[in-house]
Amino acid sequence: MLLAQFFFATNDAIVKVIYLNYTDILVLNQVIFLRGIFALILIGIFLILTKKFNLKLIFSSTKLKLRGLLESVATICFFIGVAKLPFAMVYVLISLAPIFLTAFGALFLNEKVRWKRWSAVILGFIGLVIVVEPNELKFGYYFIFPLFTAIFITIREVVTRQIEDNFHSEQIAFITCFVVTIFFGILSLFQFFIFDLKEYVLLFVASLFLSFGYFFSVATIKVALVSATSTFRYSVILWGIVYGYFLFNEDPQANTYIGGLIIVISGLIIIARQKQLGKIK
């Protein structure tokens, strides 16, 4: 899982590097579209080699397509955040996803949430306020986009729970990547950008890291308990700090560290409690 988070963060950093060459937010549509094409080819080759490339099965599930659409909207919000906010802050804010998932389950799915997990949810929102600093709003209201990302990730996870067991994780990754690629391909029609060879190479490298992220994430889920690996997902925040500092000259403020730590602690409390209740293994 540590490697998966490294690969995902590296992919995101490469996308931001390309964006900074243009500073036009619409370039992200074309970047994600082209990256998606490369990633689809790589994941497709993997499915063929493992004899899991069954297009009829992959495209048979409406819930899988819905999952891909939710992933598309989450991706839009995420990369707007990446473009406009400090790199580490984006990862801190989307780390609210398990907290949102707990609140969502209690409010809309009739799940029983006791005071310990509600306390963790409240603690998480306190961390959010500390990170955002609503009295100053140094980066405007762009902090909303990572929060929307966390919300759509939450809904995506609810949909994922309802997907039939006859799908392999790699097939889910393929259809998700396919829907996201088509989605951004349509959006990229509104404005075309000319990339040079270096940027195409960067896009291919980004797709490699994205694909490796998928594969390592899937491999981790197959060989280890969710409760044992969930905590390592927060390691992406560390990569956000490292890449932000060395690639983008970003030095996170104290409130980001303090609020981020509170959000991580609240998430870990929820994970530990879910393990105790037998909700995750």
Outline of this structure?
By secondary structure, this protein is an all-alpha fold. It has helices spanning 2-20, 27-49, 55-58, 62-84, 87-94, 97-108, 115-132, 144-161, 169-187, 197-223, 226-229, 235-248, 254-276.
How confident overall, as mean pLDDT? 85
Number of strands: 0
Largest sheet, strands/sense/barrel: none
Strand content: under 5%
Integer-rounded radius of gyration: 19 Å
The end-to-end span amounts to 16 Å
Helix content: over 70%
Structural class: mainly alpha
Uncertain residue ranges: none
Question: Could you spell the SSE succession in H and E letters?
Answer: HHHHHHHHHHHHH
Q: What's the number of helices?
A: 13
Quick one: overall form? globular
Tally of distinct domains: 1
Oligomer: single chain
Q: Mind sketching the topology for me?
A:
Elements: H1 2-20, H2 27-49, H3 55-58, H4 62-84, H5 87-94, H6 97-108, H7 115-132, H8 144-161, H9 169-187, H10 197-223, H11 226-229, H12 235-248, H13 254-276
Helix pairs in contact: 1-10, 1-12, 2-9, 2-10, 4-8, 4-9, 5-8, 5-12, 5-13, 6-7, 6-8, 7-13
